[in-house]
Amino acid sequence: MIYLPHGAADVIRWLLVSLGVGTSPLAATLGGWPVYTRKEPGSPDEVITVYSTPDAVASGRFGDTVLDYPAVQVRFRAASEAAVQARMALAAEALDGVLDRQVAVQPSGTLYRVEFVHRRPPSFVGEEKPASRRFVAFLNAYACIKTE
Amino acid sequence: MAKAQHVEIDFEKVVASLQGKSLRGRKRMTVRVRFTAPHAVYVHEDLEANHPNGGQAKYLSEPASRPGVRREMAAIVRRSVKAKNGLEEGLQRAGEYLLVRALPLVPVDTGELRDSGEVVVE
Fold it and tell me: What is the ipTM of this complex?
């Protein structure tokens, strides 16, 4: 397995920010849907969290370029089911339209190229467990990511 | 003889499937390894959960995506067909091979989720 300098979850996080699906958690004032990786924060209610998952497709090195087809999960959380559904639909449409898109991972500004994102059907939309007043949805995908 | 293994995670269950066809391609069948407990999908997908008794999220898709497991499942089907034990038996054994590798990864609370794992050839 060959790893990208940044994890796939980081690249997809900044892809979602650049697509306008979420906002940067590094911004001075949090608003919209901040996008995190690895660990979902307890607040605010409306957040997106991207995880690398262990069911990657393949990866390899071609000359100086690292090509990776990692699997990721995008998790949406909000106080209402409708909000979760709407944000996931927005993300799904945006990810489906990705084709050879440059992404800068912050704060370093390291550039990657996301060739495409292959999205799988949404797997769950419902109440957060253990029971809370919030709702979650899971979207699984794998992406073709290259170093620039 | 065996192709297109993939994992589907829908709103109700977690399923890994492998298609197979007979030597002459006349017969096509599919084996599905699935977990049908009501909370199977949530546990499979919830990467935030802690599992104090062991186990993990992606308990089926992770072993199903291992190249070695995929190769061996295809080989089990191939060997069964060549030995004239039949496509159905080969697929059944290939499914059991995957299930055995998934079970240790299934988080255990009451055991209901682990016990809901099954292999179905159709």
Answer: 0.82
Q: List pLDDT tens digits, range A103-113.
A: 999 999 999 99
Please report how the helices B87-102 and B67-82 are oriented relative to each other, as an axis angle in degrees rounded to 10.
Answer: 150
Q: Rounded to whole angstroms, how far apart are CA atoms B122 and B88?
A: 8
Q: What is the pTM assigned to this prediction?
A: 0.85
Query: Cα(B116)–Cα(A50) distance, rounded to whole angstroms?
Result: 29
Q: How far is B9 from chain A (nearest CA, A)?
A: 6
Query: Is A103 in contact with A112 (CB distance < 8 Å)?
Result: yes
pLDDT confidence band for B55 (50 / 70 / 90):
very high
| CB-CB contact of A50 with A36 (8 Å) | yes
Cβ contacts of residue B44 below 8 Å, gap of 6+?
A: A123, B9, B14, B35, B57, B58, B59, B60, B61
Which of A56, A73, A125 is nearest residue B65 as measured by Cβ atoms? Answer: A56
Amino acid in the structure at residue A13:
R
Does residue A127 belong to the interface with chain B, where contact is any CB pair within 8 Å? no
Per-residue pLDDT of B9-27, as tens digits, reads: 555 678 888 888 777 767 8
Give the per-residue pLDDT at A131: 80
B42/A51 touch (CB, cutoff 8 Å), yes or no: no
